Structures are given as structure tokens and as C-alpha cells.
User: Fold these one by one.
Assistant:
Number 1:
Amino acid sequence: MAIQLFVPTFDVDACLAQVRECLEKGWTGMGYKTVEFEEAWKKYTGLPHAYYVNSNTAGLNLAVEVLKMQNGWADDDEIITTPLTFVSTNHAIVLGKMKAVFADVDDSLCLDPAEVEKKITERSRAVMYVGFGGNTGRYEDIVELCKKHGLKLILDAAHMAGTRLNGEIPGKEADAVVYSFQAVKNLPTGDSGIICFRDAECDTIVRKLAWLGINKDTYARTISDGGTYKWKYDVEYVGYKDNGNAIMAGIALAQLPHLDKDNAYRRTLAQWYTEGFSPYADRIRLVETPASCESARHLFQIIVEDRDGLMMYLNANEIYPGVHYVDNIEYRMYRYAEGTCPKARYASDHIISLPMHLRLSYGDVRRVIQTILEYLYKVKQ
Ligand SMILES: Cc1ncc(COP(=O)(O)O)c(C=O)c1O
């Protein structure tokens, strides 16, 4: 039987009940379940604000734009970021007409605080931090660095739904935290995400900007005749159509009660992998996770010399791993930073993400481990 990288598991009955409710009520768009999920997410994370959007990508774009607007940043001001991420992270900076300045990663594959500090200039305005694979890396040092240098902090928490740091959901220290509930993430929907601003004013703005810039409150607040002028609204910004909808939010509501136990099983899988590989540190390097981090384990990655050869061998044995991610500096549009982040480039050429999902058994994990060892110690010699 083939072993896939990601297979999401849904509580099908609970999801269908949520969707049925939407259909019966006749409300599938923005509002209703989206508001219910925002409340549930705030309660789960302890973050003060949450706005449900149609993807993490949309949320990152909005985070940069709102923070830029609120803090008076200029075009071409700089955001320090990681090259080892999905392009959404860095595109958000460019779409916000700012400059993506790349800093290198450390052994957690997250930004290295010392490398970030080296990249700070007069024009630095923020750090974009990715909790890679659910790992916090040295997030606390990044928080301190941002405080010291007066930089804003955006946390791309696409992989971090459910990650704890010192027993708590991290992010209260960041100016914006953006989660992904895309189809194969730890809390899967179809496509959606949520943006959690620290500042109430930013939360108010994002609700308008994500919906064409429309401000419904202007009239709603002044009208006392029972809503005759409901159709009348003001438009304050050139905005987007980035809002989430009730169908997706219903699925998110059905999945949220499973998140912590799902993540616990992911950590069990990671533990089995770790134990299986530990005698083979000469050929298999693991990504470092600090002891204070209880990772959501969206990914389990290893670093090997001949990644591409291993990948082909695994495929030939019906095991289908992935690569997260190619160093963004290899892409044409970010090539201006060529040569600046050697550790990220090394990782990009040598990392492999092993199958990580809830349908994997101990036997499956053993099969993956055995096949990898077979390649590295027998086929390759
Ligand atoms: C690190 C990272 N950031 C952002 C995203 C974008 O998330 P979404 O698909 O919800 O837009 C992803 C998705 O894979 C990701 O891995």
C-alpha cells in the first residue's frame, strides 16, 4: 500500500452536520459560522482578535498592508524574512510594495535571531517569522530582538495550529499572527485561514479591507428606523474579497475539538521517527526543536546528503514524501539575494518531509524508516 505525505482526516459526521445547518438556514457566506469560529479560535488561542479569511495567503497580504498603513511605513521599507518558506510569506511583503530582506535560518529551520540582527537597517520595519513545520525555533529571542529594535513582528503560523511554547499558544507578543486551515494543514477545511491582530484598530481595519473596503457600520450605527437603509454603506479603502465563508467555518468548527489530540498523535509519529533514526546520526540529521516547544508537528523532516536519490528510491517503494521548501532565493524574483543565506540553501537541497498524518500506523512509520535505511546504508553504501 502506498504511503502518502499528507492525508487529512475529517470528522465527517460533524462536518456534514455543520454544512447541513448552513444549507438549511440558507446562509453559506460571510458571517454566522465565521463569527462563531472567530470566537472559538480566540478562546482556543487566547489571542485578543481574530478575523476569518479565505486563506493564510490572504491573511499575510492583509497583515503587511494593515501594519504598513497603521505605522506609516513607506514603499521599499524593509521586512526581514526567511527564504525557507512557501512563497506566500514573501509575496505578501512584495505585494505590500515593501522589500523582502532575507536572513538565514538555524538548525530549527526557523530564522536565526543573530542573522536577523545583522540584517537590520534604518529602513527595517518588521520581521516575518515562520514557525516552520510547527516548530517555534528561537521565537522568544526574535520577540526580544523586535522589542529592542522597535520592529513589528508578523508570525506566519501556517504550520502552527496547536503549537505550544512553555505550555502556552505563542503569538500574544506578535503584532499579527496568521494561521492556515488549507486542505492538508493540522486543522483542515477546504481553504481558509485566520488573522489575529494584537491591536483592536488593526482588527477593525482588516474587516473592511478584506471586504472591498466596505464599511457597513457607518450607516448601521446612525440608523434607528429598523434598517431601512441597510443597503447604504460607505467605502473607505480599495479592498479585496478575502473574507472566509460559513461553509468553511462550519468545517473548522467541527475540526477544532480534534486539534489537540490530532497533534498529540502527530508528536507520537515524530517520536517514532526520531527513535528509529537516532542510531544513524552519521547519515540522517534531524531538525532541532527546543525543549520548551510542543510542536504541532505539521512536518517531520530529515536532512540527508543525497536527498534526490532517496526521494526516487522512496517513490519506487510507493512512499511519497515531499520537500518543504525550496529556498525562495532560487526563484527568479528573489534571486537578488543570491548567496546571502547558505544554511537555507543547504537545507533546501537536502531536506525531505516524511509522511505525517493521522492515518499512519506504527508499522507504516517503521516501513518508511526501514526503506530510508535500506537506501542510505545498502543501496548507496
Ligand atoms: C509557511 C506557509 N505560509 C503560508 C502558506 C499559505 O497558506 P494558504 O494555503 O492557507 O494560503 C503556507 C501553505 O502551504 C505555508 O506553508
Number 2:
Amino acid sequence: MSETKNEQCPTCQGNKVIEGVCETSPEWQSTEHDDGMVCTPDTKCPTCHGTGVVEKSEK
Ligand SMILES: [Zn+2]
């Protein structure tokens, strides 16, 4: 038996992407940030590279 075991990516919980988050801060309520809200776009998970699973490494 030489099958590769994959397990759910612990970083994205199998979602394949890191969900973007929106944050507000009073400090940003000026000039460049219109409403004081800054959002991060969804990002492909760097741990599993968008696969949702990672190779299980047994040591
Ligand atoms: Zn992941």
C-alpha cells in the first residue's frame, strides 16, 4: 500500500481560500479610506495552494 494520505488543510479548513475580512478603524476615517473600512480580498490558501487538502506528513 503506497497511497498518499491527504488531510484537510488546517489553515483554511478545506475552504481552499482565506476569506477576506473587513475591518473598520476610527483612525482610518480620513482621506484615502472613504468610510474607514478596509477589506482584504479572498486569498488562495498559501498552505494547500487552493486544493483544500494537504499531504499528510508522517514522521
Ligand atoms: Zn488551505
